[in-house]
Write a structure and sequence with these properties.
By secondary structure, the chain is an all-alpha fold. About 65% of the residues lie in helices and about 0% in strands. The protein has four helices and no strands. The longest helix has about 50 residues. It is elongated, with a radius of gyration of 28 Å.
Length: about 140
């Protein structure tokens, strides 16, 4: 069975009116939900995710700053214990991890905001382009 034939078996053919839809755009969507038949998006989730990335970046910076003072006095209080070296290694490891998370969230925050902006600009451009298309005679433009 060819790949093309397999796709036709799974999704139907164009000629019989069968087609694949995203659940959010399928008028008879899953579990009794129904979409409008139009895929829509908003920049809200992208902007919200960007804000979350920024909040995580800030909290990891704060947590990393608290590690140093939290370990003050440990060296003198644990002098002579073999676990002191391991404790210092663990602290340095956590500091490195928190720096990585902070830096990744900082990059992600900007990227997510850029996506929200780009998608909004693309929507406006497409809407403007479609507005210039003549509709059927006798119908008003939307």
């Amino acid at each position: 069975m060819s790949l093309t034939q397999r796709w036709q078996d799974i999704f139907g053919t164009v000629g019989d009116g069968t087609r694949m839809n995203l659940a959010s755009t399928d008028p008879g969507g899953p579990s009794g939900t129904s979409g409008t038949g139009n895929l829509k998006h908003s920049d809200g989730p992208w902007t919200s995710a960007s804000g979350t990335a920024g909040a995580v970046r800030t909290s990891t910076g704060t947590s990393r700053a608290a590690l140093g003072p939290g370990h003050e006095g440990v060296s003198s209080g644990a002098a002579g214990l073999s676990a002191l070296a391991a404790l210092n290694d663990v602290r340095r490891s956590w500091e490195d991890r928190l720096v990585s998370v902070r830096d990744e969230c900082e990059a992600l925050q900007g990227t997510l905001l850029a996506v929200a902006k780009e998608m909004g600009e693309t929507d406006a451009s497409v809407k403007s382009s479609l507005a210039s298309i003549d509709t059927k005679p006798g119908e008003e433009k939307r």
